[in-house]
Design a protein that fits this description.
The protein is α+β, with helices and mostly antiparallel strands. 64% of the residues lie in helices and 10% in strands. It folds into 2 domains: 74 residues, no CATH class; 163 residues, 3-Layer(aba) Sandwich (Glutaredoxin), CATH 3.40.30.10. It contains 11 helices and 5 strands.
Length: 251
């Protein structure tokens, strides 16, 4: 199969000859020359369509590699915001030697699926500082749920984990009434919560998380960050342990 280099070389020869001739006369290609060159190129591609796929794959690979470099550079600049925003809920060991970050949405089925594994990881390890980024991307109910949870973290902190757990293990929709019911069952003062949800710090926290997600090209949930590595999706408990181990070995 002709390589992309072969195609490039062929195109270079095809374009150089008429351009060289014209360069001596300081004139551009005339319409006939241009048409002739385009016809030769077209015939080559029609007879060798595989080079188009090869070129596309090469382009996509370069784009992925460039995106990874951009993401890694951005990650380095955003470490403080990712790990140490005072508005972010923290569970596990607040003095743990490893920090893991999760962007999540309470209505996300994959976030619900991975919740028990996250709790197992934190419990079994005992030395993980786990930062939760409220990232409501699945509609108004998601936003309401995150606003309520964020308000609980800011004002009724000891009730956050029970409330967080209740919402991520709940079935069905998270209407406003359901959110308040779950909050009440978790021991939250719901009368105060309705007022606390209007705290400007709630919107600030959610906006900060949305800004970070945009900067890191995070568009779905869950998305986990181990050091400078982003792992999207409901990864397995074994993979979580492996990534934590790698992070400890190479902080």
């Amino acid at each position: 199969m002709p390589s992309f280099k072969t195609l490039a070389a062929t195109l270079a020869i095809l374009t150089t000859l008429p351009l060289t001739a014209c360069a001596e006369e300081t004139q551009p290609l005339d319409p006939a020359q241009k048409q002739q060159m385009e016809q030769v190129v077209r015939e080559y591609l029609v007879n060798n369509p595989e080079v188009i796929i090869e070129a596309l794959e090469s382009y996509q690979k370069r784009e992925r590699e460039a995106a990874q470099v951009r993401q890694r550079d951005t990650m380095g600049a955003l470490q403080a915001d990712l790990k140490n925003n005072l508005n972010d809920p923290i569970i596990g060991n607040p003095d743990g030697d490893v920090t893991v970050v999760e962007f999540f949405d309470y209505r996300c089925g994959y976030c619900k699926r991975v919740f028990n594994d996250v709790q197992t990881l934190i419990k079994e390890d005992g030395n993980i500082r786990f930062v939760l980024k409220e990232f409501p991307i699945l509609g108004p109910d998601s936003v309401n749920a995150s606003r309520a949870a964020q308000a609980v973290w800011l004002h009724q902190k000891d009730k956050y984990l029970p409330f967080h757990t209740a919402m991520l293990t709940s079935k069905g929709e998270l209407s406003e009434a359901k959110i308040m019911e779950l909050a009440k069952d978790a021991g939250v003062d719901t009368a105060q919560l309705k007022e606390q949800m209007n705290d400007p710090l709630v919107e600030t926290a959610l906006s900060d998380t949305a800004r970070l997600a945009s900067a890191l090209d995070i568009t779905g949930t869950p998305a986990f960050i181990f050091g400078s590595q982003i792992q999207p999706g409901a990864i397995s408990l074994d993979m979580m342990k492996e990534l934590v181990g790698a992070l400890r070995a190479h902080p």
